[in-house]
Write a structure and sequence with these properties.
By secondary structure, the protein is α+β, with helices and mostly antiparallel strands. It has helices at residues 7-27, 31-42, 47-52, 63-99, 118-132, 146-149, 181-190, 231-246, 286-291, 308-316, 329-332, and strands spanning 136-137, 143-145, 174-176, 195-204, 216-226, 251-258, 261-271, 274-284, 300-307. The chain folds into 2 domains: 7-99; 118-332, Bira Bifunctional Protein, Domain 2 (BirA Bifunctional Protein, domain 2). It is rod-shaped, with a radius of gyration of 44 Å.
Length: 335
């Protein structure tokens, strides 16, 4: 700025600065560049400050005119910068929304939260009840040999009871277990009485598939051996368990036959106006105890077995066992 600075010259230069600043501010496309423009035009060392440094060469009465004009320019530019900042923020938000938009018509890509299968939750409930009665859980192999699955349970070769359990035989005298009773035999071989155990697990029989039968199903078997146990202890245990599981459904015991218990009974509950078999039970046959080297004169015991599917169907009023195995999410999501 030369020594011939005049009022008109400064006003003209302020107008030029204003037009340039407005153009550049309106054309800014980033928040960062907008801040640089503010410093360039309005900062302490910005172009407006440099221009006003020449104001001291004006006569005293003209300086307020330039000062007022400069304040108006500065206020206007700051207001313009603020509006542009808001505009840029709005544009950035629109870009984010567009990039994160969700097509609600597209199939879901995430995995929905799962829950326990009704068979598992039923097994857990049965197990919890017996744990509360002082029993412990014992498990064993699903592939068994003939001794543990049949002979040790008082079912020798050619015994008619083998016809009751149509078996999947494998090579080398192996088979898929037809019940979880072999688990009890294996446990008693290494654990002398007194014992109170339950053995839940999957079992296999060559049953035709229909509304109430499946070649693969689940059992929970109960075994208690101690001094002085009799049928009243068996009945009391079964009644306590059934009441805890089903509530106050009517229960009845019917005389039956199992090769490894004597006397034996089947247990029914009244469901949908009809009696439905849910368990088999009985006092452990002394021949089974003697075969394991247990003194049957001192020790007595009782056993019971139930099908988890049957309990699950009664509890949830399911009319077809196949629903539990076909993995239909429309069905399973109800539980």
């Amino acid at each position: 700025m030369d020594s011939t600075v005049s009022l008109k010259t400064l006003i003209d230069e302020l107008e030029i600065l204003e037009k340039e600043a407005e153009k550049e501010i309106k054309g800014a496309i980033e928040q960062e560049s907008l801040e640089k423009l503010r410093v360039s035009f309005l900062g302490k060392k910005g172009r407006l400050s440099v221009l006003l440094s020449s104001m001291g060469k004006l006569p005293g009465q003209e300086r307020p005119i330039i000062g007022q004009r400069a304040n108006i320019l500065k206020t206007g530019l700051l207001d313009l910068i603020t509006k542009r900042q808001e505009s840029l923020k709005s544009e950035d938000l629109k870009k984010i929304i567009a990039s994160e938009a969700i097509d609600i018509t597209a199939p879901p890509s995430g995995i929905p939260y799962g829950h326990r299968h009704p068979l598992i939750s039923t097994t857990d409930r049965i197990t919890d009840i017996f744990l509360g009665l002082g029993y412990e859980v014992v498990e064993g192999p699903e592939v068994e040999n003939d001794f543990y699955n049949f002979e040790a349970l008082n079912i020798p070769p050619n015994h008619p009871a083998r016809d009751m359990q149509d078996t999947f035989y494998l090579d080398d005298n192996l088979l898929l277990r037809t019940h979880t009773s072999p688990v009890q035999i294996r446990f008693l071989e290494n654990n002398p009485p007194p014992v109170r155990i339950i053995s839940p697990g999957r079992v296999f029989r060559r049953d035709a598939v229909d509304a109430t039968h499946s070649p693969v199903f689940h059992q929970v078997e109960v075994l208690a051996i101690d001094e002085g146990l009799d049928f009243s202890h068996l009945r009391g245990t079964v009644m306590a368990f059934l009441k805890e599981f089903f509530g106050d459904l009517p229960v009845r015991f019917r005389a039956s036959y199992f090769p490894f218990t004597e006397p034996s009974a089947e247990v029914d509950v009244q469901w949908r106006g009809k009696w439905l078999e849910v368990m088999g039970c009985g006092m452990v046959d002394p021949a089974v105890l003697e075969g394991l080297g247990i003194d049957s004169e001192r020790w007595t015991g009782f056993a019971a077995g139930l099908g988890v599917e049957r309990f699950c169907m009664v509890r949830h009023e399911i009319d077809d066992i196949r629903r539990l195995f076909n993995s239909d999410l429309r069905f399973l999501e109800q539980f």
